[in-house]
Amino acid sequence: MDIKEIKSLIKMIMETDISEFELESTDEKIRIKRGEPHEVVHYQAAQISPNPTAQHVQPAPAPVQEMAPAPAAAPPEEEGKSITSPIVGTFYRAPAPDAPPYAEVGQVVEKGQVLCIIEAMKLMNEIESEFRGRVIRICKENAQPVEFGDVLFVVEPI
Amino acid sequence: MFHKILIANRGEIALRIIRACKELGIKTVAVFSTADSESLHVRLADESICIGPPPSLQSYLNINAIISAAELCDAEAIHPGYGFLAENSAFAEICENCGITFIGPSSETMRLMGDKISARQAVIKEGVPILPGTEEGVRDGNEALKIARKIGFPVIIKAAAGGGGRGMKIVHSPAALPNAFAMTRAEAQAGFGNPEVYIEKYCEEPRHVEIQILADNHGNVIHLGERDCSIQRRHQKLIEEAPSTVSTPELRKAMGEAAVRAARSVGYNSVGTMEFLVDKDNNFYFMEMNTRVQVEHPVTEMVTGVDVIREQIRSAAGLKLRYKQSDIKITGHAIECRINAEDPVKFTPCPGRITAYHTPGGLGVRVDSFVYDQYVVLPHYDSLVAKLIVHAETRNDAIKRMSRALDEYIIEGIKTTIPFHKRVMTSKDYIEGNIDTGFIDRAVLE
């Protein structure tokens, strides 16, 4: 389900007096609840869809992917701002292998809150959120190499 | 031999290196700024990594990003090309510390020969002629005046850390010296972070003749003959050729042997170029050494048949040189025209989209370029768009071939210096070989 469909679903519900709506299929589940200061939409997809712009995938074991032409490579239908990598390195979701990740999908993060670590030349660089928001998507896997401009997170400002 | 090399550069030289690597069976990694994502070197490399935004400081000069990229893709070696980090000894040293082979001389040798003052001192020891001048930096205006009088005017004040034709002033009279001295020191500080300057005799109407050196890690050093780069505008080379019209077998031998002696004495182990000035009487004087591959290396390749980049990579991989000095023969004549995205009269940069592109061809024509139809020439980097090189049996044949090739070359949508090169190829002075570094300034072109 893309954002257009979600928007038209919300519009449809607004035109009725439905207060709570939930739709579930094998791939996804959506719940819309009215009566709160913001319309709360919880959306969860079973699979994070890959970046639709062309990517040049390298054969294994080389883990490097060619960057898409524009720095903000998030799918156009999605709300939220892309948080891109400012450096070349390896993306880690947590401060240590056994520690909990800095951020999960759906989590609200504050301005300045650490979202991830990018390790470059044995130095750990903390990447902070520039604004308060909710994490919509985590675009890289743990220990994945990232290049400058790679989209790491999509965060919806709130 | 290396399994994978990262090319820390862009444009035509990145493409040149990728081509040599492919022929050697080496995997290539291109690094690029966001502005270069459509560049040919990115498309032709086996892998590519974006290292930063358009400004060079944050991308092609970004040592952290480049080393990080090399570690990410497991590159065993980095080829720095020319410009950018090619003569940055700190970068070479970081590569050494990270266990990555820097394809070039050691950081120590680079430091020694990259500093013009220490380079002069090093070559003097090997009996290489230098222009009368100071052996150390000159610190004081009064000292400068004394030295200049002793050398004899005109003199030239040069930044020790300078290069690319910047940080130098010619002084014709004692009255002008104190001012020029102070200004050059200030420019040197601003441009290179080092105010040290030295003074040497200024050679009027000299030829710029340079010797290509090839060396390995086993003490073998040879030269590949000379190139004449006298056609320069504001110290930027525009047209180069090999052999030089002033060269004789004796002069070539003397200059070549001097260059080899000097290179061997500092333990040089990669490709490099010794630049000399040759005066009206065919005396040659050491100027500086460039510890990298140069833009104009193709003319040497055409007349000797040696693949300079391939040999550089082989040396860096620890292999011995395949050639002895006696194997090197100069055959025919080669000319290179640097085609820049600039106004052909005013030389102002003209970036933009190339709307039509067609390269010349035929016997003895070589085009080293990274542009293509609809490519957008960027304002962020230098204006070199293509190198057009020809090779023919004689100099006159080469000039005719270059004229013919320039006529065939179509680059529309941007202004280029092709019209300028065409005028030079038909100019009487050029055809007769009356060229020196004042050629362009004298506006001898019709």
Q: Please bin the fraction of helical residues of chain A.
A: under 10%
H-E string of chain A: HEEEEEEEEEEE
Radius of gyration computed on alpha carbons of chain B: 21 Å
Overall pLDDT confidence of chain A: 77
Strand order of the largest sheet of chain A: 4-11-9-6
Q: Which structural category do the helix and sheet elements of chain B fall into?
A: alpha+beta
What general form of chain B does the structure show?
globular
CATH class of the largest domain in chain B reads Alpha Beta
The CATH superfamily of the largest domain in chain A is identified as RNA polymerase II/Efflux pump adaptor protein, barrel-sandwich hybrid domain
What value does the Rg of chain A take, in angstroms?
17 Å
Average pLDDT of chain B works out at 94
Residues in helix, % of chain B: 25-40%
CATH structural class of the largest domain in chain A: Mainly Beta
Q: What is the annotated CATH architecture of the largest domain in chain A?
A: Beta Barrel
| Strand element count of chain A | 11
The CATH topology of the largest domain in chain A comes to: OB fold (Dihydrolipoamide Acetyltransferase, E2P)
CATH homologous superfamily (4th level) name of the largest domain in chain B:
ATP-grasp fold, B domain
Which parts of chain B are unreliable, with pLDDT below 50 for 5 consecutive residues or more? none
Report on this model:
The complex is a heterodimer of chains A (158) and B (446). By secondary structure, chain A is mainly β. Chain A has one helix at 3-14, and strands at 20-24, 28-33, 40-45, 81-84, 89-92, 108-109, 114-120, 123-128, 133-138, 144-146, 151-157. Chain A folds into two domains: 3-45, no CATH class; 81-157, Beta Barrel (OB fold (Dihydrolipoamide Acetyltransferase, E2P)). Chain A is built from one helix and eleven strands. Chain A has a four-stranded antiparallel sheet with strand order 4-11-9-6, with no helix packed on it. A four-stranded antiparallel sheet of chain A has the order 8-7-5-10, with no helix packed on it. A three-stranded antiparallel sheet of chain A has the order 1-2-3, with no helix packed on it. In chain A, a hairpin with a 2-residue loop joins strand 7 and strand 8. The longest helix of chain A is centred in the first third of the chain and has 12 residues, at 3-14. Chain A is elongated. Chain A starts with a helix and ends with a strand. Mean pLDDT of chain A is 77; it is low at 45-74. With 446 residues, chain B is α+β, with helices and mostly antiparallel strands. Chain B has 14 helices and 20 strands. In chain B, the strands form five sheets. Chain B has an eight-stranded antiparallel sheet. Chain B has helices spanning 11-24, 40-44, 63-73, 89-97, 107-114, 116-125, 141-151, 177-192, 249-265, 297-304, 308-316, 395-408, 418-425, 428-432, and strands at residues 4-7, 27-33, 47-52, 77-79, 101-102, 155-159, 168-171, 197-201, 207-215, 221-233, 236-242, 271-278, 284-290, 333-340, 352-353, 356-358, 365-369, 376-377, 384-392, 410-412. The A-B interface holds A 56, 58, 62-64, 66-67, 69, 71, 87-90, 120-121, 145, 147-150 and B 29, 34, 37-38, 42, 46-53, 59, 64-65, 67-69, 71-74, 98.
